[in-house]
Recover the amino acids of this structure.
C-alpha cells in the first residue's frame, strides 16, 4: 500500500494502474490518498464511559443474587433512563441490538442464561437447617443399610398426560388471532400415570388410571399386559388405588436382601399399614415438603424427558389422521412410547442427581439451584492507574483498623471513591438498587409463622414414615378419628329421635291411627 501511495504521489502511475500493479483495493488506496480513515468497531465513541458501564455491569450481577435477574426487555427500559442524564444525541440514546452485543463483548463476566422459575415459598422452605436435616436423614439410612443395595431403593411418582396437543405452532394468514385445530374427544381429558423404579434401573409396570366404574375392553387393547390398568370415580390417584398397586405390583418385586427403602411425596395410613403387615423389611421415606421437584429422582430425570417425548409423538400423529390418541386407546399408545423411551438409564441418572444412590451430600446441596454470587475480580477496581494503588491501599487499611469495616464494606467504599474520581457518582449503589428492584417485583416478606396442620405429617426436612414413633402417632390419630366418628353418629341418631318425638309428630301419629 505504501509503494502504491508513493507511485501515485510521484505521478509515476495513476490510481487505477497503481492498484492493479501493487494489487491493493482501489477504494482503500483512494481513502489513503484522501486521508479518509475508516472507524473500526472499537473506535466508535461509546454511549457511556467505562465507569458507567461498570455500574451497569454490577447492577446486572447483583440482581440475580436477590433472585430477580434482569432480562433484555428490562434493560431496554433502564438504558434510556441513564442516557437521559447525559448530553448526547437522541439517536444514540436508543437501546440497539448492536450496543447490546458490543456491551456483552466488553464485559465477559455477563452472559445471557436461562432462568429457572422457583416459588419464593418453596425457596424459603429450603433453608440450611432443612438441607442439613435431609442429609442427616439420608446418612442415617445409609448407615443402617437402607441405601446400600440399589435393588431396594425405590421411587414412585404420578403425573398427568394429555390425549391431544392443544397448543402447537402452525402456519396461517398473518394477523389471524385464533387458529382452530380440531380433534376428537374431550379437550380437558387428562390421564393419570404412576411410574416407579429402583436405583438399579428396574422398572415396574406403569399404572394408568381412568375414571369410571367398570373396566373397558378398549383400555387393554394392544397393551400385551405391559401396564397396570386402574379406575375410580374421579380418575385421580386415591389411597385405595395406590395401596392396591403397591400390594400387587411393588411388594412382590422387592428382591433386596436387606432393608427396602421407598421414597414418596406423601403417604397414607392404608399404605403404611400394608408395608408394616408385609413380611419384608420396608422403610417409607417422605421427601421434604415443597422440594420434590429437585430431590425426587422421577421428577429430575424421568417425567420431564418423557413428557417431551410424548408431545413430539402427538405432533407426529398430526401427519397421520387415521391414528389418533383417545381415552380408549391411550394405554396402547403410551405403552408403545414407554418401551421406546430409555427409562432404565433415566431413573438411574435421577438417583445419582438427587444424591440418594450413591449417597452424595454434595449432590443434595446442589440439587436446588440457588443464586450464585458474581465472581470477584482480582484486578484493581475499575480502571485505576497503578500509581494510585498504594494510596488506595492506605485507605483500605484505615477503613479496616479505624472504622472496623469488613472486606465487602471496604471494597464498596473504595469503589465509590474511584467512581467519584472518574467523574461518575451514581445516585444509588448497585446493591441498594438491586434490593429495591427485588422489593418492587416480589414485595416485602411477611415473617409470620405458619401453624402446622394436625391432619398431615410435617415433613419439612424429610421423614421416615415407617418409624415406630410415627406409626404409634398415626394409630393414635386413627383411633381418635374413629371415636369422633362414633360420637358423631350417636349425636345424629339422638337428634333424629328428638325430631320424631316432637308434639307435632305425636299428634300426626295419633290422627293417622
Amino acid at each position: 500500500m505504501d509503494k502504491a501511495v508513493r507511485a501515485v504521489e510521484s505521478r509515476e502511475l495513476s490510481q487505477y494502474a497503481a492498484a492493479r500493479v501493487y494489487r491493493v483495493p482501489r477504494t482503500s488506496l483512494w481513502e489513503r490518498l484522501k486521508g479518509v480513515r475508516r472507524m473500526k468497531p472499537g473506535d466508535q465513541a461509546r454511549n457511556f464511559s467505562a465507569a458507567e458501564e461498570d455500574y451497569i455491569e454490577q447492577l446486572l450481577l447483583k440482581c440475580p443474587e436477590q433472585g430477580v435477574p434482569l432480562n433484555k426487555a428490562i434493560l431496554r427500559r433502564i438504558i434510556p433512563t441513564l442516557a437521559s442524564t447525559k448530553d448526547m444525541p437522541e439517536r444514540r440514546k436508543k437501546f440497539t441490538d448492536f450496543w447490546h452485543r458490543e456491551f456483552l463483548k466488553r464485559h465477559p463476566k455477563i452472559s445471557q442464561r436461562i432462568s429457572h422459575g422457583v416459588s419464593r415459598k418453596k425457596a424459603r422452605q429450603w433453608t440450611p437447617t432443612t438441607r442439613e436435616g435431609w442429609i442427616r436423614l439420608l446418612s442415617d439410612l445409609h448407615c443402617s443399610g437402607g441405601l446400600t443395595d440399589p435393588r431396594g431403593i425405590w421411587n414412585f411418582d404420578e403425573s398427568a398426560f394429555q390425549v391431544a396437543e392443544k397448543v402447537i405452532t402452525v402456519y396461517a394468514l398473518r394477523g389471524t388471532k385464533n387458529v382452530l385445530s380440531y380433534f376428537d374427544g374431550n379437550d380437558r381429558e387428562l390421564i393419570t400415570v404412576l411410574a416407579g423404579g429402583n436405583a438399579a434401573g428396574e422398572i415396574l409396570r406403569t399404572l394408568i388410571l381412568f375414571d369410571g366404574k367398570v373396566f373397558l375392553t378398549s383400555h387393554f387393547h394392544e397393551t400385551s399386559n405391559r401396564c397396570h390398568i386402574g379406575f375410580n370415580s374421579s380418575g385421580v390417584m386415591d389411597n385405595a388405588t395406590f395401596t392396591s398397586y403397591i400390594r400387587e405390583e411393588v411388594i412382590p418385586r422387592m428382591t433386596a436382601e436387606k432393608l427396602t427403602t421407598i421414597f414418596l411425596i406423601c403417604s397414607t395410613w392404608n399404605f403404611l399399614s400394608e408395608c408394616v403387615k408385609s413380611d419384608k423389611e420396608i422403610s417409607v421415606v417422605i421427601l421434604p415438603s415443597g422440594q420434590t421437584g429437585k430431590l425426587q429422582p422421577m421428577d429430575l430425570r424421568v417425567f420431564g424427558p418423557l413428557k417431551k417425548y410424548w408431545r413430539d409423538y402427538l405432533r407426529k400423529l398430526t401427519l397421520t389422521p387415521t391414528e389418533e390418541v383417545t381415552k380408549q386407546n391411550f394405554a396402547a399408545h403410551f405403552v408403545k412410547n414407554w418401551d421406546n423411551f430409555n427409562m432404565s438409564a433415566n431413573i438411574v441418572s435421577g438417583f445419582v442427581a438427587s444424591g440418594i444412590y450413591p449417597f452424595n451430600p454434595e449432590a443434595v446441596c446442589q440439587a436446588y439451584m440457588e443464586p450464585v454470587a458474581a465472581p470477584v475480580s482480582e484486578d484493581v477496581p475499575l480502571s485505576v492507574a497503578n500509581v494510585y494503588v498504594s494510596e488506595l491501599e492506605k485507605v483500605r487499611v484505615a477503613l479496616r483498623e479505624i472504622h472496623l469495616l469488613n472486606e465487602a464494606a471496604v471494597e464498596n467504599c473504595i469503589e465509590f471513591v474511584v467512581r467519584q474520581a472518574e467523574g461518575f457518582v451514581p445516585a444509588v449503589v448497585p446493591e441498594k438498587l438491586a434490593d429495591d428492584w427485588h422489593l418492587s417485583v416480589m414485595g416485602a416478606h411477611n415473617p409470620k409463622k405458619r401453624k402446622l396442620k394436625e391432619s398431615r405429617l410435617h415433613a419439612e426436612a424429610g421423614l421416615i414414615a415407617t418409624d415406630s414413633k410415627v406409626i404409634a402417632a398415626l394409630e393414635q390419630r386413627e383411633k381418635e378419628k374413629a371415636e369422633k366418628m362414633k360420637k358423631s353418629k350417636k349425636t345424629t341418631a339422638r337428634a333424629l329421635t328428638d325430631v320424631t318425638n316432637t308434639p307435632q309428630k305425636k299428634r300426626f301419629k295419633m290422627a293417622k291411627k
Notes: The chain has 21 helices and seven strands.
